[in-house]
Design brief:
The protein is α/β, with parallel strands linked by helices and about 200 residues long. The chain has eight helices and nine strands. A five-stranded mixed beta sheet has the order 4-3-2-6-7, sandwiched between helices. Strands 1-5 form a two-stranded parallel sheet.
């Protein structure tokens, strides 16, 4: 029953709340570049890392409210999550620009990752080339977004791709996760992302 509830929850996140709707103008959408998911004490938590467009472009518009760098939604079921979203956000979430997916230990320990993968697989807007990680503290990692860097998603993607080929780290993509899942029914080993005591972001196998 618990896995069934989680499955419905995650499917509704991706199908009802998160996907960018057709016909919606670009300025009426939000474009997260990093997503983190976890579960603890029967509560689900989803964090979206938005790029700091003002920091990136240097174009701060006077009189406009600054966009939040991280959107956090949590609740016991989808109704709570959706109500919270509707009360606080006016724009659609478009997942077409996501670069990074981070899974918390609660998702991994209870094998809820299977529902996560199935939900993401069903959404054509989510690219299979995004990088997948695991962490013990999704909030600590996501705090990097908009504080230490303008976009955590772009920052991590750059670590893997903005290097000469011989110097590049080998990340695990969503495509690789799908492949192992279909072949073995297991979640492949994921790189660990964490924040050290000195505030440095660390990624290791």
């Amino acid at each position: 029953m618990r896995k069934k509830i989680c499955s419905v929850f995650l499917m509704m996140i991706c199908s009802c709340l998160l996907v960018g709707c057709t016909g919606v103008e670009p300025e009426k959408r939000l474009y997260p570049q990093a997503i983190a998911l976890d579960r603890s004490q029967e509560v689900y938590e989803v964090l979206f890392g938005m790029p700091d467009m003002e920091g990136t472009t240097g174009q701060e518009k006077s009189g406009e409210e600054k966009q939040e760098n991280i959107l956090v939604f949590s609740g016991k079921n989808m109704k709570e999550i959706q109500n919270l979203y509707n009360q606080t956000q006016e724009k659609y979430l478009d997942l077409g620009h996501v670069n990074v997916l981070i899974l918390g230990s609660g998702i991994r320990q209870m094998d809820y990752w299977e529902q996560v993968m199935a939900s993401f697989k069903s959404q054509p807007t989510i690219g299979e080339d995004i990088y997948v990680f695991q962490t013990a503290d999704i909030r600590q990692v996501m705090e990097y977004n908009g504080t230490k860097t303008d976009s955590l998603g772009d920052y991590i993607k750059g670590i893997y791709e903005n290097r000469p080929y011989v110097q590049r780290q080998r990340g695990v993509t969503l495509r690789q996760v799908y492949k192992v899942w279909y072949e073995t029914g297991e979640l492949c080993p994921l790189p660990v992302i964490s924040v050290l005591s000195d505030g440095t972001l660390q990624i290791h196998d």
